[in-house]
Amino acid sequence: MAEGKPSKGTARGELAMGLRRSSLAVIAGLVATTSVLVAPNPASADGTTVVPATCTGIPVVGTLDTSVDVNATDDVDPVVSGGQVKLSLKVPIPVGDVPVSATITETKITTPIPSGVSVAGVAFTSSSFSSQTWALSGSNLVLTLSGSVKVGGSNPTPTMPDVTVTANVSGAPRVIEWKVPSTITAKGSAVIIVNTSFTATCTPKNTSMVLATTTVVAPNVAPVATDQTVPVAYETATPVKLTGTDANGDTLTFAVASQPSHGDLTGTAPNLTYTPDSGFSGTDSFTFTASDAALSDTGTITLQVSSEPATIPGAPEIDGVDVLGEGAARVRWSPPTTDGGSPITGYHVTVTQNGVETDLGTFSSTDREATSTALKNGVAATFEVSAVNGVGEGAPATSAAATPQWWLPWSSGQVAIVELWTWMTGKPPTYQDYFNWLSQLDGGFKTTTDLITYLRTTTDATNNVDPTIRLYSAYLTRIPDANGLNFWLGRRRAGWTLSKISSNFAASSEFIRRYGSMTNRQFVENIYVNVMERAGDTAGIAFWTRQLDNRRYSRGQVMINFSESSEYMNKQGGNVAAAAFYIHVLGRAPSLQERADFIQGIVDHGFAAVVRPLLRTESFAARAG
After folding, report:
1. Domains in the chain, number
2. Considering only Cβ atoms within 10 Å of each terminal Cβ, which end of the chain, N or C, has fewer?
């Protein structure tokens, strides 16, 4: 709408386009007609516009140049896309002051319809014409006035209709240009010399002339209030800025719709400050509205208030400290009464002797005990245990002092030496052996495992214990039972030869049940397969079979030759060591798995590392005197 044009409101309205009366005189007594339909020009204000036109088909004169004053206004500007306007026009009187009488039978006005505009209907006011119709022809609107209207001479001035065109507007925001009609045609007859029919056509000299403009704007779309999740530190005032978007680019205003449940809001929207209630942590929220001039939307601000800041955990509770044996002690604890607001992730343990602290490492959050196996015997050891969480390490809890001794779990060093010597050799130590080992053990120069290792190298071990264990493996392919081994060791230590013991094994019901009655050759072949774990060579089988057939050797003597061979001794070394330790020290035979673990443990970690944990078991503590 051009500057100075009156406001027309924002609702659906009417566009009035009044064609002011134009004088198109009848030259030389002939009739000429003209009329103009609405069409705005961006350069022209809505209102009256002078439209130059050329009329043709006038009898006698032929062509006439004239002009018409056109009034065009619109009462809705801007109009929302998708809305509707009404266009009004006043049809001009088709003749001026004419001295002759003429009859108008039809007037047609053809005007272009702007792009994005569709005609929904046309209304006419009463006039001197008997028929008033409209039709669409392509992109043009055609108005037709029909009848028999007398004009000129002494005839009264005819009544012309006002026309209202209802138009729907669609499409993108823009400026619509309402242009002048493309043609105006009048048909009729006039009495000059005789009654003469005519058809006159008037065309604007500039068909692009714009009479009025209408601005089309986008429909108002509701704004969108932006939801947010705002982190809030514990008991800390936190700024919150309300935001939203508007498709029309309208300025938005904000207001709080509902208050938070666990805190207070201060400030003026959209710039607010949220302060959580004292001691509150968790989720809080409030709602707000974002509004343009007409529409609004509601959004939610979610406030995630963090928990009270975590601190380091408290000290654990020491449940006790246990001396486990030579160089070993264990501390036991319970979790602290407070984790500082952060889950316990582990426990840090240290042990101190003679003012020297040793770090035992960090244990898992589920561990409740820690053991040190590298303590100095005879020196008090103190453990410290501290809990660890996501913040850091808490204060330590300190255990009572515990003093490891080399002879534990025995009641004394004297008892330990005597029992080990007796268990492993079948007799107590001599006074010299006893005194020598006691002084070295008490002085820290030797350990219990050193004594066990020594006793496994004595003549009794190499001549009595180990050969007897190998006979069990050779004949029965199993670990000796404790009672059986001790029985045959008793015989061996009493003077029985290995050959005699071997013959008793060969004649035992267990051996016979396992292998049945065998010929000498079968006996020899069985030794190769089951004892040596390989096929016998032909010469070897033949040799030992002859020895048995010729009675040069008994079966017991033949077996001894195999069980005491360097090949078999090397093969059975680990099995013999495991059986001897378990039976003589622990007082029971090992299981197959225990034997395998014992052998592999020595390979991986050494004899002392394998033996010491076994001496710390509750079952061994019950056996030790």
Report:
1. 4
2. C
